[in-house]
Design brief:
The chain has 137 residues and is an alpha+beta fold. The chain is built from five helices and four strands; from the N terminus they run ααββααββα.
Length: 137
């Protein structure tokens, strides 16, 4: 009986430690659809939009196919990236696990699960935006 006590204590400690961990959530199809519905309000000429999230659930990439926006000023792309980052955080809410977001613009988006070769990317500033939108209490 005394041999079981250390295992019981260890089990309780492991359980208690795991209860404090934040659950890693993958972006759902519904949330991705909300992104795709909202991006035309930010980039009206967008022809295609898709969301990519691989095994690292702290990162997201939004790829927009838009030949006219592709040739626009880099500052306009960065501003759009930040606006898309804000929209992503509003959709996901304060209980999200994102730390990094990439906004990519391509001439023609093939909609496969990899970054297009011609993609021009900008940081969505997710980590900074989270601090402003959802300050720690």
């Amino acid at each position: 009986m005394k041999k079981l006590i250390p295992f019981a204590i260890l089990s309780v400690l492991v359980f208690a430690a795991s209860c404090g961990l934040k659950e890693q959530k993958k972006i759902t199809t519904e949330q991705s659809t909300q992104f795709e519905d909202s991006i035309p309000h930010i980039i009206p000429s967008a022809r295609s939009i898709h969301t990519m999230q691989n095994d690292d659930l702290t990162k997201v990439t939004i790829v927009v196919g838009d030949p006219s926006f592709y040739t626009s000023d880099p500052a306009a792309k960065q501003q759009a990236a930040i606006r898309v980052g804000l929209m992503v955080l509003h959709v996901l809410g304060p209980d999200n696990n994102l730390n990094n977001g990439t906004f990519a613009v391509t001439k023609k988006d093939d909609n496969n699960d990899k970054m297009p070769a011609d993609a021009l990317s900008a940081d969505m500033k997710i980590d900074s935006l989270k601090k402003v939108l959802f300050p720690a209490k």
